[in-house]
Amino acid sequence: MKMSKEQYAEYVKKKSPDSNLWADMAKAFAVGGAICVLGQLITAFWGSVGLDEQDAATACSMTLVFLGALLTGLGVYDKIAKVGGAGSLVPITGFANAVASPALEFKSEGMITGMAAKMFLIAGPVIVYGVTASVIYGLVLWVSGLL
């Protein structure tokens, strides 16, 4: 079946669900904001048990990554993402979801060739470009004498 670009665009338009941009943005804001509020509550909890500010922030990050991976494994994070869209992807829990989802999806292919090989399918480029950008940024600061 051959289609022109115009025919294909029309076909996609017919098959794609309509979405309300403002409602989608409000849901993303609410879900992302709720995750961030949860992060603040977790940080306050870790501070209340005696951790200093920096250690409480680190413990909060670890807790949120754990919760993101756990909720992904239980199938709950997908439901949150369906409602919140990009609001669920931006916080650190979205990163945990991006690592855990492929690992779960490919576990049937085996521990090494499936889960371990595919775990960083989505998050891998983020890690590579993040580290690369950090090194370049550090070198620029070092060469310019600001570091």
Verbal overview:
The chain is mostly helical and 147 residues long. It has a domain at 24-105. Helix content is 77%, strand content 0%. The chain has helices at residues 5-15, 21-48, 53-73, 76-84, 92-105, 111-118, 123-144. Helix 5 (92-105) runs antiparallel to helix 6. It is extended, with a radius of gyration of 20 Å.
Write the SSE topology.
Elements (H helix, E strand, L loop, with lengths): L4 H11 L5 H28 L4 H21 L2 H9 L7 H14 L5 H8 L4 H22 L3
Helix pairs in contact: 2-3, 3-5, 5-6
Question: Rounded to an integer, what's the Rg over CA atoms?
Answer: 20 Å
Low-confidence stretches: none
How much of the polypeptide forms β-strand, as a percent range?
A: under 5%
Q: Number of helical runs?
A: 7
- What order do the helices and strands follow? HHHHHHH
C-alpha end-to-end distance:
60 Å
Task: Please report the total strand number as a whole number.
Answer: 0
Largest sheet: none
Fraction of residues in H or I helices: over 70%
Spatial shape: extended
Output mean pLDDT.
88
Based on secondary structure, the structural category is mainly alpha
Short description:
This protein has helices at residues 5-15, 21-48, 53-73, 76-84, 92-105, 111-118, 123-144. It has 147 residues and is mainly alpha-helical. The longest helix has 28 residues, at 21-48.
Task: Give structural attributes.
147 residues; 7 helices; 0% strand; extended
